[in-house]
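#onboarding

Welcome to the new folks! Below is a worked example of what a typical request in this channel looks like: someone posts a single protein sequence, and someone else replies with the predicted structure as tokens. Don't worry about understanding the tokens yet, we'll cover that in week two.

Example request:
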Amino acid sequence: MKQLCTTLGKLTGFFTVLIVVIAAVLTYFDDPETDKYTSMAEDIKTLEENFRQQNKSCFILGASGETGKVLVQELLERNIFSKITLIGRRQLTFEGKANEQLVQEVVDFEKLEDYAAAFQGHDVGYCCMGTTKAKSGTEGFIRVDHDYTLKSAELAKAGGCSQFHLQSSRGADKTSSFLYLKVKGQVEAEIEELGFDRYSVYRPGVLLVDRQESRPAEWLARKLLNGFTSVCSTSMAIPIQVVAKAMVSNTLLQPEQKAEILEHKDITAVGKSAEK
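Example response:
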């Protein structure tokens, strides 16, 4: 037991040093600082009220996922839309009055053309839909993160949606040699070609999620990432609550261009402005 404690102590010390070193490197090569969104906090309530008076509606893809669930709650709490529709493969259950405030459309993503009506009549669309190669295999990952996402965006555009907000990933690049980043970059570019009046892409780093149930490896990874965040708060990891807040707050703004990409630090700045 004494030897085990000694070994664990050495490992803890090693990981602590590793975290500090990597955080320092990440800081050096980090996204450039931005002050584009820092003045937003004091005007957030006014922006919300002005937007609320426009009586707009929205839909959410991926509401059963970690970020999607938080996004639903954020939209309900801030009450900026007159109607919120969840589009997914199954009916979801929510606590309290949320079930009464939400409209749910159950669709078959393999036959989305048959469900075009579900995408009609929305002003704003949010997409947090996604899976992983480990969970769904290569083909399943491409089908969800590219095919389903792109087809949904096409139907939304055809149905009159003017704004589309896509949760992507830091490092997304259609020319990347890494499948995950390549697929993310491809779908970003192809949705931009659809010509939404406003198109916002969010590229967060590692998402910090507090799962009620997790395996030992997941627990260790989360603890290490929280360590990264404590010494380098905006360069690598970000809580999903901040991402959700950023997506909602950014909806209230009038961008300078039709298409925009919010990198990790931009998301952090917008998300935290809503907390002030």
